[in-house]
Fold these 2 entries.
Entry 1:
Amino acid sequence: MTPQSGPSAQQPLLQVEGVTLSFGGVRALSGVGFGVAKGSITAVIGPNGAGKTSLFNTISGFYRPTSGHVHFQGQDITNLPAPQRAKLGLGRSFQNIALFRGMTVLDNIKLGRHAHLKTNVLEALLYVGRARREEAELRADIEERIIDFLEIDHIRHAPVSALSYGLQKRVEMARALAMQPEILMLDEPVAGMNREETEDMARFILDVREEWGVTVLMVEHDMGMVMDLSDHVVVLNFGQVIAQGVPATVQANPEVIRAYLGSGDVADLRRKLHAGTTAAATSAQGVA
Amino acid sequence: MDWAYLFEISLTGIASGGLYALAALAFVMVYKATRVVNIAIGEMLMVGAYLFFTFAATFALPLWLAIPAAVLGSGLLGAVIERTMIRPLLGEPPISVFMVTVGLGSVLVGLVEMIWTADQRRLPDFMPTQPIIIGDAFLAPKVFWGSMIAVVFIAAVLLVFRFWRGGVALRATASDQAAAYSMGINVPRVFSLAWVVSSMIAAISGIIVGSIGGISSSMGIFGLSVLVVVIVGGLDSVLGALVGGLFIGLVEALASAYLGGEYKLLATFIVLVVILMVRPYGLFGTHEIERL
């Protein structure tokens, strides 16, 4: 699968059109529009309170937009409840880890497949027919693919509450992958992680796209990671899209720099921004 | 010390504890899924018993029809309660929902008195009447058979919720609603399911309790002991409901045999206070730790 950068002639997998979201008098999002191309890694960035998580919640069905539309695979999903969207192939993780505490890693991951199972009460109790087949398929897929892939084999029977923060994030990603998503939505996948954990996670995100052909949409604060991984970056500020495009263009955009670092001498701020994005800086220097 | 007498009392206590366990299971089901403390659990038991009374005595239906009809009727009532009183309060402070269930209890008592009057009534006998002798101990047949029925239903409910997808969905919802919702679990339907199943279990225990002691509009008092059971066991713990049920049944039986019937509730509530001092979340309840 070839990753695509920027807008393409092909219809995007996920299309957000003029989405406005108000809570009473507060406008969390106003007229947000962008597309996520199939097979791309798209990042949504922006300062705290810019509306990134609100946007995520609107796409996954937790909030209904005041106006505007969300299209997924050409279908208008604006009014579908979240469980339905999960069945269509929207898998997500949460900013504050939302694992099922008190269950093991394996049970958590298996729950990701819940939406796709069809076994009824009687079959489940007798463990015949569909129940046996579905369980076998589920086990094979989860154990051979997901658990191996994310390198969490050693903790599969551990209760999730006993795991480190980085591992919990990884289990959450595994659970989202078990949903067999078309698009994987990651809300701050590396927030609070150390350098090593961040690098691991970055590798997994790239592999998800390369090996599984899953499109990735992520919200992230770590600028270095965003610039390294993304094909397309959308910048939100005060609920509006202030810039979008390939990482280098976005990084050079004066308005983005102002939004991140406040007003001041743009050239100076730009240097600061680059200093913070060591890895990306080399490639972006020429453009800037 | 009369060991034979102690044995007999203990047996009776454990048997009636089985009934507490079944009713506590109904309570825990709702609490686990929806975090609603259902004070009206005793009244829901009562409604189930009165429905059975109506189908079996008034309409003279055979037992195999009257019992399922009463259970289904209660399930329907549970669905209506959830849809009209509980769901509109979704996201409101727990105390509001709690007060609604307090009100629900009064409404149910009022309805029962309007329809069936406040007179004490007897349910038709459907359990074998020959006395049960275990060793040298005598056990009232109704208590014995009632607890056997309770055990069968507890086992059935546990099995279904252990292996069926709906049970998994219920546990996931109990653990994290937002995550469950985004996994494709229809959370509102899980809420309905929990109330329906809880009402049906309550109806079954109501029928058993009513068969043993008769039914009246003050039968909801039974719910008070059930509340003690679930608080002792831990509000969200199925295991707690079972162990707590047997334990409280035993305490009540021993207290009324050795101290006199008027000390029954006193003993139970002293046990409650002591357990809460040692374990504030109940014996098996989940410790809620807020992570910031």
Entry 2:
Amino acid sequence: MKEVVESDSRNTTDPVKWVEEHGDALYRFAYSFLKDKERSEDAVQETFLAAIRANDRFSERSSVKSWLFGILKHKIVDIIRQDARYVRPADWADDDPHFEDRFFNANGRWQTPPRTWEHPELTLENRQFWREMEGCLALLPPKTARIFFLKEMDGMSTEEICQETGSTTTTVWKALSRARMSLRACLERHGFGQE
Amino acid sequence: MFSRRKEKRMTDNRKERTSPMSCRDISALVSESLDRPLSLSERLVLRTHLLFCRACNEYSRQIRLIEDFFRRTRTETDSLKERDHEEPVLPEESRRRITRRIEDEIRDHGPESHP
């Protein structure tokens, strides 16, 4: 993860040069998730602008490139979360004490047992899957989504997520559990895994 | 399809983390197994339940597939950072537009300390 400080042009702190130096790599990265020219361009542009606004933090960074990619990931997540295809139940909030009641009946059994997924192809290249996944990710309440993305986009450990969000381990595990529960149900509800 | 076998309610303290018996509790444990090492007794409880419960088995399989998808995606997209001069590239007109936008931003709210 940590990169050695480079003093060549690749580590320039001159924002105008970033477009030449890092534009293609950032764009390609954004495109692999967003699959769309305009959304990917927006993500790249917003990344540069956010970086300029946080300019005073340049000097603390070991590598401009990895710093820009860090910002880009968050911009991609923001864009994915703007997807409003599916509507979240109005009463589903981050701290909903009844979340699990949507999935289990009073004796703790599944209301709708998960069905077997036939030929599940979970890849970014499987447009149908990824489109559904985007829509389902957008449904997660904000804090739950943040924790899920820190885990799955940034690959953070529970401890790192706790530090980043100021949450307890129990909160993090619960949020991840709920995110997984709702994602798989949402995918299935929209036909994923059924022939 | 889904066996509705009666679950033996060994104790009534289902809330206790070491003896979760319902599918509701098991689903949380399955999820946590992706985030932390389970204790020996938790592993035992989980394995026993999964042996008999098709729904929880499927749940476990699916959230693992999702977890695995994100792990693969992290690895694959990470490697994109290093591969220069590959398609797709930032289109020329976008490059110009973004550069102009950056110059505007610097003029308006510019970084004072930049060399």
